Amino acid sequence: MRNRTLTTITVVLAAGALALSACSSSKKNTNGGGLGGGSSANNGGTNQTYKIGFVGALSGPNAQLGINERNGATLAIDQANASGKYKFKIALNAQDSEGDPAKAPAAATALISDPTVVAVIGPAFSGESKAVNPSFCQASPPMPTVTASASNAELQNQGNKCWHRIIPNDNVEGSQGADWLARTGAKKVYVLSDLSAYGAGVAGTMAKELKAKGVSVVSSGVDGTTTKNYNPIAGTIAASGTDALFYGGYDAQSALLAKALVAAGYKGRTVTGNGGKSSVFTTGAGKAGNGWYFTCGCQDATIAPTAKEFTAAYTAKFNTPPSTYSPEAFDAANLLMDAISKASASGTATRTSVLDALNKEDFTGITTQIKFQANGEVQSSSLIVNLFQEKSGAIKGLGNIKELN
Amino acid sequence: MSQSENWVQQLPQNIIIGLEQGSVYSLIALGYTLVYGVLQLINFAHSEVFMAGGFGSYLVVNGIVGHRHMTGVMVPLTVLCGVLSGALTGAAIAWLLEKVAYKTLRRSGAPKLAFLISAIGASLFLSNLAGKLFNRLPNNAFPTYFDINHQLFKIGNAKVTLIEVIIVGSAVVMMIFLDRLVNRTKLGRGIRAVAEDAPTAALMGIDIDKTISRTFVIGGALAGAAGFMFGTAFGVSNLMGFTPGVKAFAAAVLGGIGNIRGAMIGGLILGQAEVLIAALPFVGAQWNDVISFVVLVLILLVRPTGILGERLGRAA
């Protein structure tokens, strides 16, 4: 009797906790799948439906970038389905990884085992990319992937033949950012990383390039997953006598750091990479975010002339202007649909034929010209890094970082 | 200037930051130690009581302040409301936790391990509930109704800000209050009696269930108030409890689990150790989370029962 009561309570509690977490993630999933799936429920007749997968954070602390991307891809797919320009329909199968390398494998497996998925956008983050890129490429047949945001500079060297990326990697971003900082006259720079695959990568490149330019560098790291109190490190930074700080890490932590730096009275220039550039930073940091710079291999959709139509359609559909990596994901989806259409010209498109078509693509997107090199990166002439700055709560594009002083 | 000179120069400022950090650890650690004292049980859901206090006070403060700009006497009043609502939420959640996750098990005489699992289940439940009800962003900032970084005065070259004074000040007040409560009142005598020898205390006419429930409520109130302070300084999130919770548990063990003054001292030592050791030029902030546990292990090697020993409870 005693044991039975005990078991009942334990089971009820455990079930409650599980049901709750399952509940929240399943809700996110239906949102993701539903946006694409609802508009293309047409399975009958001659219309073939292909699915494009998506892996990224749709919930959890770093969800904003993932949501930006899913929305961009959804828009591209809905537009294509509505216009009828392809003889097939496309649906999105969005899998939430929470951006966590430990949770991404389940998301990847779900996509690989769905036979209608012929290509994948993502994974969105670098850490999860390292975890699952091999699974995608070693699946048989390999699953073609295009990431619109994972910028770690080692991903292209891991021998994953199915992998593609349409943005500049951290080496490009970090070294151009470092060149710019050196041009601004910085003599000593504090380089801080959040110790994630992305943050440590971009911070490492930044430090290396700064040293090569004769700028002295102080490097350190603060674990972005456990740290809330940035006052101690902000004090150290303020006392370091550096002209500028570069933070390699994501938006929410950058915001906490920004606030702590103001409290510590840091006077130098503050710069972070693409991971920090989002509304989570601007709302989280409040006034402390004013003046922060962001290097990003991404388009400012609000000013880029090629993105005008996209911005209007996106804003109308999601009630919010496109943000970091929405245009890139829009391009990735259009690119994949183009590849699927070429692959299906002679029969049914398969993962293998889509991968072939993708490797031969020469596609003009709203962000850049997409033509892949053998390692999966786009040609270096198409890699543009832009500089952004927060001014009273809004992140404004300053232009191509190579042309700025 | 060499980096070690820099460390010395930074010392006063870092001690103040460490004091702020340590005060929060102490307040949470008191909850672990009180419950351990009366039940010989680690309440692993205590970190979620802290989180709940953060969210409870967040809702109240947001409700009061909204988008308005606060001035004059309204500012300290709002802070007081925040502390009280945080403490109240913490107390309510702790009371509920005891009723649901522990009392039923205690009644049926379940083994110690069952309590542990029950606590971990409750902890997961609460943090996911908060994630679902609010959101899972890591930094829901409190409305900025006062300039938390307003510099009040300077000690040498170290700046002392408003939020630091609020956190350390209210922590000290609450700790003195708790010390008085446990040592001078009837309820405190009851708590000490149950901790000393529960069956005998029952024979002496002490209602053990009520005493245990009240112990949870006191610990919960302290953690809830700490949740408000931590939230005001660094923002609230559904996962905010985990790291401070683990550190505070370490602090409780460091001071001697079951020992109230030990928990206070343990928290303060850990706060200082983290900030000062991480600031050393050859260590670095990336070792922050390691430092607490290295300090814990080193002290337990010398004093296995913690700095002040396990005074309140029986030897476990």
State the main characteristics:
A: 405 residues; alpha/beta; Rossmann fold; 2 domains; 7-stranded mixed beta sheet; 5-stranded parallel beta sheet; 12 helices; 18% strand; B: 316 residues; mainly alpha; ABC transporter involved in vitamin B12 uptake, BtuC; 2 strands; globular
Q: Number of helical segments of chain A?
A: 12
- Major beta-sheet overview of chain A: 7 strands, mixed
Termini Cα gap of chain A = 77 Å
Task: Round the Cα radius of gyration of chain B to an integer and report it.
Answer: 20 Å
Task: Characterise this structure.
The complex is a heterodimer of chains A (405) and B (316). By secondary structure, chain A is of the alpha/beta class. Chain A folds into two domains: 47-168 and 306-372, Rossmann fold; 170-296 and 385-403, 3-Layer(aba) Sandwich (Rossmann fold), CATH 3.40.50.2300. Chain A contains twelve helices and 14 strands. In chain A, strand 1, helix 2 and strand 2 form a beta-alpha-beta unit. In chain A, helix 5 (170-183) crosses helix 6 (197-212) and helix 11 packs across helix 12 (351-359). The N and C termini of chain A lie far apart (77 Å). The model of chain A is unreliable at 18-45 (pLDDT under 50). By secondary structure, chain B is mostly helical. Chain B has a single domain (3-135, 162-302), classed as Orthogonal Bundle (ABC transporter involved in vitamin B12 uptake, BtuC), CATH 1.10.3470. Chain B has a two-stranded antiparallel sheet. In chain B, a hairpin with a 2-residue loop joins strand 1 (151-155) and strand 2. The interface between A and B is large, with 47 and 56 residues.
